[in-house]
Amino acid sequence: MMTKRRLHPIAMVTGVGRELKHVLLPLLVVVIAGSRGDFSWRDLVMPLLVLAYTIVAGVLSWVRFKYGWDGQTLEVEEGLFVRKKRTIPFERIQGISTTEGIWQRLAGVVKVHIETAGGGLGEAEVALAAVSREEVHRLQREIERAKEQAGGRPPCEHGNRPLSLPLFTLSIKEVWLAAVTSGGAFGVVAAVWTFLSQLGDLIPYEALFRNVQTTWNGHGRWYIGVIGLVALLAAYGVAIGQNMIRFASFAVRRQEDTIVITRGWLERQTVSVPIGRVQGVMIHESWLRRLFGYATVSLIHAGGALDGGPPGDVVLCPLVKKERVSSIIHACLPEYDLGVAFRPLPKRAQIRYMLRPLYWLAAPLALAAYIERPWGAGLLFALPLALWIGSRRYQAAGWALSSRQLTLRSGWFRRTTTYMLKHRLQAVEVAATWWQQRKRLATISAAVMPLGTRARVVDVDEEDAASIYRWLQGKGRNQA
């Protein structure tokens, strides 16, 4: 017999608060723009009706949302005007992650994201906004028991399973260093710009633009540059604070066949990644982190955006010493071999890497140097720098092949190394332009996951690219 439950009342509060946050700014703009300087209480009638409807709809949505489970399925009923009922077999549930915002922590509950095999990338199949930790643990035990029975294994007791020791944690110093080197300032600027763009009726942007143009023509460009630099530094400071809150209390554990990642300060998040759904391993090394011997490790995951990042990408180690990466991966995913020897690109590909940045950089720099002459001529010194960067990208690129794993590496500012097992690969593509054909070169790209997460290396020797293609078909010889 399935007993239906309602979410904790804090779900109603957070849901109404989220909807009010979305409507308050547009309503404020409507009130100010509609009054036209002659304010009347009648201007508040429509906004108050919208606010009342938002609150009532939020309360009724909470009342009509019910969930429950038996030994085999999870059922969810929801809908304000149209009633919708979903039944999800436990066998289809691939992962459960939890988050704890400020309100959830005050109420002693968590938000549960349930991902299924048929769910689309980017969002969970079911989200329970406020559930007690005890109920989450009971649901997890029921799901594990159902999967064991479906797999022909006798069910075991999971209630007293001890919490394993963390395989990886971040110290306070490493949290700060991860936040400082993560960037994100341009994301903050974009968010502020999006907010200001909604106030077009209140802020005279055309007049401001004319004033800025007059100041620029009046040789006040240095003042504008200083203001822009201060704004960028302020955005960078905000990004550092956001990343420190995000990476606080970061820990990675392995519980049997699941990788459990916990993180967060204001909003605590627990992500459970089934090892069977890991499609590959990616190591990112920005030039700044590489300078201090650090890297970022993420997992290519056949599922949604479990940790708030892009769909299919789960951060395993936000910041880790490079010499520790191999041991952490071996403890979590012993099938992967990170000690491979990379094959460099052929020498004839170096000139192509050096000239490639000039294709899109030479014309804009020449035009800027002409407009801002004579001092603008200093911009032309960026051309040799571009050649040097292209040479570094050539030296960083490479590939490695073994009997069961393909590894591709590319980039220099942000060098990315992707490790993919043969049985996880969806496709390997070999392509060559007319210019590449003349140099006997090709571009090799490999994709994992049904929707395709790709890694590629440009200007590989065409014979090497053909051997990789044959390897995927099972015709090539094993290579180390």
UniProtKB/TrEMBL annotation:
InterPro entries with a match to the protein in the record: UCP026631, YdbS-like_PH
One protein family per Pfam: bPH_2
Ranges that cross the membrane: 47-65, 175-196, 222-245
Residues covered by the YdbS-like PH domain: 62-143, 250-328, 394-472
Keywords: Membrane, Transmembrane, Transmembrane helix
Keyword Cell inner membrane: no
Superkingdom, natural source: Bacteria
Entry protein name: YdbS-like PH domain-containing protein
UniProt organism field: Geobacillus uzenensis
